Amino acid sequence: MAVIGLDHVQLAIPEGGEDEAREFFAGLLGMREVPKPANLSSQGCWFESGTLSLHIGVDPDFRPASKAHPALLVDDIDALETALVEAGYETKQDKPVEGYRRFFTKDPFGNRIEIMQRTAQ
After folding, report:
1. Chain-wide mean pLDDT for the chain?
2. Strand 71-73 and strand 52-58: pairing?
3. Residue 3: inside a domain
């Protein structure tokens, strides 16, 4: 028995935050919204891009994740950072990690998000 992969990452948002989530994850990050199965709660929304599945779930006791975070791989980190800054989101550089360029930002709800791009080695 072994873990063989990661199916999805879930982030919590407050009630009624789905439209803001769509603007951020689909609008700014370019992910595609996919339908949730009909037998699940109608709250929240799901997004995909490449092999990544990101589930956004409503938490009535929402508190933003300030340390735990997804690290999203991108193909043009400079363009995404510019788009985020122009949309009013702060970006923060952090300690270097070999083989990557990276920065942190927060989604509209304060959840920490790491943005990474592989560098040529």
Report:
1. 96
2. unpaired
3. no
Q: How far is CA 73 from its chain centroid? A: 10
Cα–Cα distance measured from residue 115 to residue 108, given in angstroms and rounded to the nearest whole number: 15
pLDDT digits (tens, 9 = 90+) for 33-66: 999 999 999 999 999 999 999 999 999 999 999 9
CATH number, domain of 24, equals: 3.10.180.10
Cα 9 from Cα 53, distance rounded (Å)? 7
Residue 11 CB-half CA count within 13 A: 30
Domain count, the chain: 1
Per-residue pLDDT, 3: 87
> Which 3-state string (H, E, C) describes the chain?
CCCCCCCCEEEEECCCCHHHHHHHHHHHCCCEEECCCCCCCCCCEEEEECCEEEEEEECCCCCCCCCCCCEEECCCHHHHHHHHHHCCCCCECCCCECCEEEEEEECCCCCEEEEEEECCC
End-to-end CA distance of the chain: 34
